[in-house]
Amino acid sequence: MKEEQTVCYSCTNENCFIKKHLHLEQMITYISKKQNITCKKSDPFITEGAPLQGLYFICKGKAKTVKTGINGREQIVRLTTNGDIIGFRGFGTSKRYLIGAYALEDTVLCNFSNETMQEILHHIPEFTYALMLFYAEELNKSENNIRKIAHMNVRERVIDLLLYIHRKFGQRNGLIDIELSRKEIADFAGTTEEQAIRILSSLKKEALIKTEGKRVGILEVSELRSEIMEHKYF
């Protein structure tokens, strides 16, 4: 993991929370205080339980956030890409990170320290309001996921995951634009690697998906949606 200079004003990532507020004159002061970090694939950049060191914004790349569950097993709780924020769950209320985070590919991160973020929140009300709405939306998503997953069987959870990454990352050349191992799919779907492999194999035989290495391509989006429609997919 190494530092890399990234200039916000020339950044092409329009989804970034920081980029969206660069029109505010006050932001100039805080942009110069951020740290830019490059992570290689599989590098950890947040350790669960480590002292809080501000928020991370993905400039370019993909990452996963994990949380330790029963019997010390890590479960993937979120997949992130360009513009997403990482480390926000403990910010402002905890002195330690509540999650861990790893790069899924070579990734460029922008880190704003605790002190810098607090200054921004105290002095730029537009940013603070937007972040409040972000937290409200994330809370709503978490509550919906808990309710949804509680009523899904394993096959439905795997299908729900496939549709989620299809929406979030899109497809290129017929394959979802993210590499996930069978174990990572299992961790996110809350099942075992063996079950995940079995379900993916079944979906492939039914001509609903295709696979190439660690990549999955969805062939029949509407049919997969129909399987979990009762759980209010939309």
TrEMBL record:
<keyword id="KW-0238">DNA-binding</keyword>
<dbReference type="InterPro" id="IPR000595">
    <property type="entry name" value="cNMP-bd_dom"/>
</dbReference>
<dbReference type="InterPro" id="IPR012318">
    <property type="entry name" value="HTH_CRP"/>
</dbReference>
<feature type="domain" description="HTH crp-type">
    <location>
        <begin position="152"/>
        <end position="222"/>
    </location>
</feature>
<keyword id="KW-0805">Transcription regulation</keyword>
<keyword id="KW-0804">Transcription</keyword>
<dbReference type="InterPro" id="IPR050397">
    <property type="entry name" value="Env_Response_Regulators"/>
</dbReference>
<dbReference type="Pfam" id="PF13545">
    <property type="entry name" value="HTH_Crp_2"/>
</dbReference>
<feature type="domain" description="Cyclic nucleotide-binding">
    <location>
        <begin position="18"/>
        <end position="121"/>
    </location>
</feature>
<dbReference type="InterPro" id="IPR018490">
    <property type="entry name" value="cNMP-bd_dom_sf"/>
</dbReference>
<dbReference type="GO" id="GO:0003700">
    <property type="term" value="F:DNA-binding transcription factor activity"/>
</dbReference>
<dbReference type="GO" id="GO:0005829">
    <property type="term" value="C:cytosol"/>
</dbReference>
<dbReference type="GO" id="GO:0003677">
    <property type="term" value="F:DNA binding"/>
</dbReference>
<dbReference type="InterPro" id="IPR014710">
    <property type="entry name" value="RmlC-like_jellyroll"/>
</dbReference>
<dbReference type="Pfam" id="PF00027">
    <property type="entry name" value="cNMP_binding"/>
</dbReference>
<dbReference type="InterPro" id="IPR036388">
    <property type="entry name" value="WH-like_DNA-bd_sf"/>
</dbReference>
<dbReference type="InterPro" id="IPR036390">
    <property type="entry name" value="WH_DNA-bd_sf"/>
</dbReference>
<protein>
    <submittedName>
        <fullName>Crp/Fnr family transcriptional regulator</fullName>
    </submittedName>
</protein>
